[in-house]
Amino acid sequence: MTSAPRPSMTRSVIAALLPVGACLLQWLCWPVIAPLVWFLFYPVVFLSPWLGGFTAGLAATGLATALVWWFFMAPVHVLAKPASGAYLNAAMFMAMGCLFAWFHQRLRHADLRAAAAELSARDELLDRTSRLAMVGGWSFDVDTMEGSWTAEVARIHDLDPSAPVNVKAGLGYYHEEDRPVIAEAVRRSIAEARPYDLELRLVSAAGVDKWVRTIGHPVLRDGRVVEVHGALQDITERKRMELAMGDSEAHFRSLFEQAGVGVVEIDAATGAFLRVNGKFCEILGYPEAELLAMSFQAVTHPEERDRDSAQIRRMARGELPEYSVEKRYVRKDGGIVWAALTVRPLNRAAGLPGRNVSIVADITARKQAEAEIQELNATLERRVAERTAELQAVNRELETFAYAASHDLRAPLQAIGGFSQALMDDCGKVLEANGRSHLDHIIRASSRMAGLIDGLLTLSRAARCEMQQAPVDLSALAEIVLAELAHGDPEREVRIQVEPGIRVQGDPRLLEAAMANLLGNAWKYTSKTPAASIAVAAALADGMRTVRITDNGCGFDMKYAGKLFQPFQRLHRQDEYPGIGIGLATVQRIVQRHGGELAAASAPGQGATFSMTLPGAA
Predict the structure, then answer these.
(1) Do the first three CATH levels of 240-362 and 466-615 match, i.e. the same topology?
(2) Left if phi > 0, otherwise alpha if psi is -120 to 50, otherwise beta: which for 23?
(3) How far is CA 589 from CA 402, 586, 594, in A?
(4) Domain ranges (residues) in the chain
(5) Fold designation for 240-362
(6) The model's pTM
(7) Which CATH architecture describes the domain 135-234?
(8) CATH of domain 466-615
(9) Strand pairing of 532-541 and 494-498?
(10) pLDDT of 363-412, one tens digit each?
(11) Distance between CA atoms of 596 and 537, rounded to whole angstroms?
């Protein structure tokens, strides 16, 4: 059985500890939602296994049960509950939590099994088709001259598919007389970006002589050939038959009767069959006598008769030495059969009746395989489109949920904060110091909760909003942000250095938010530093611009750097430097959406430098 991938340890721990956050939130909102003790814990145990997996879901269920039992189930802070209904409620909750965890685990396994089965079926179909067509693909890098090929190409060379591949070794398998031809074709493909299509002799690793059709197509990048892709087809049987047609009449008759493909002799003027072999009769399902009373036009698909007749006339005029085509024949039973047809004049001597000889190979199986591949590709494209639409719908639903959740949470928070402030204003003088302290704690807690909700929404928008690409002047943005910070704190004196002309390519709104967070942090953490300074500089390398924001503030210990970019993780106490721990997580997501990286370097008491890598503007 295919095992589901394990979520990361961080996700598992966060998922297992979600009930703690739900407990805190429910505690704050308890006057509003009481006595619904499980109000926030059912969504938590549903989301925990989705986020952290089966084990995290079970852990979250157990933790949630314990928290509700101790803090919310009456009588609180008592292990033994007098009402039997409490035990039944707890048992039902734990059962639902286990069911949610099991459901998410089964869903992961089902998705993996379906993907593995589809991939296996596609690989099997491609390999079967390659074998039927006796054609495979190859490619190599022009700098290293190393490459790869498919299993069918390896089989043509009588080599193990896992054998190492390079251009020199590959050219060495060609017949010594043909080796200069293929070597020159490869050279011109690399130097002049010229494709090639050649039929050459090859000697396999087992010493077997083969004819192959090799096709090469150069791949350009920035006006330079970086790779050559191509295909190799074993055409030994076809070439043997073509060469055999130039031998003596006796050899021709022997080949005619013993050929593994259809061989037909036709009157060049009328198209009537003069002689047919058994294989051709088998392909079309006619007895030999019936075919000899017919012409090739009678068994050719109606849509292809005019084309065939025109080619025959061109060959009769000497404009074509021969012609090859893939065409459709109509069998006696009305069925359609695909064939690879090669026609060549058999006798052009003056005064003798014109005749053509045709080699007919049944390629119906190959055509059916090609049709299956096209259908499979169309199905896969449709599935990708459907899956993309589903993901877009899910993202829209998540945005709607985040907005609705934040709106629903803001209302009680505003009520708590507003009424608490009103109580403080109206009755603060008659309250004891202890009561005023409690009210002050409630007001600060509701304000902090509102800030957390706003931070979560900002984080969500940074990860999901549609990006608008445009050149952005980060120097100008930095000047604006720093001017606003100085205006809000006019008593501070901060030495500011902003390198001019820092231009990047990205979304102006997101990059403005990133600069506001980074510069706001620099301003905040230098608030207790005499002679504070903030500098913005940049460097350009390989089309990416690294923007550095440096300050001489309080700094931090790098052993805690892993917490910097995690939501709600802070390295300083709230009473030292207030904040909610969302800013750097938001900046990291913005930088990652631009294809860059965010890094930090610091030491306690020595300031900090935050570096973000962004695409440079043209």
Answers:
(1) no
(2) alpha
(3) 17, 5, 9
(4) 1-132, 135-234, 240-362, 466-615
(5) Beta-Lactamase (3.30.450)
(6) 0.36
(7) 2-Layer Sandwich (3.30)
(8) 3.30.565.10
(9) parallel
(10) 888 888 888 898 888 888 888 888 877 776 666 665 665 565 555 555 66
(11) 17
